[in-house]
Write a structure and sequence with these properties.
alpha+beta
Length: about 140
Amino acid sequence: MREDPIGLYVEGKLADTPRGKELYGLMKMDPRPAINGLSIGYIPVEWTSRSKPEEPRRTLKKINLMEISLATFPANLKARVTAVKSGLTIRDAEKALRDVGFSQSQAKNIIAEGFDVLPPWDADEEIDALKAVLTRNIGAFRQ
């Protein structure tokens, strides 16, 4: 976290849990994310109260930031997630391919060239489903 010209800049990582994966999917939805707001929890340490009716009720000078969380409706409408990256690497993709039975050289070739590098196979429904998932994931890695 750091302050930048816009406000509080935050980079984070979602947990590798079902909830983390769900939130990632919601933030990557197209044409617009289902969730992209941010909320903070803090303890005010130093502030000033307004002296005129047109001023904010209170101006925070110093806070202890306790947490940052995703929110559907943030209190500050400008508190938004502006970019979501996969966080996965090519090595992760190769390992996933090896874990489902491809050799190391096949995995590297699939990442580089796609499934067309494999010899033709007699695919049943499970292999077709696996191929679709892997193709989608490889596309995400290339982005």
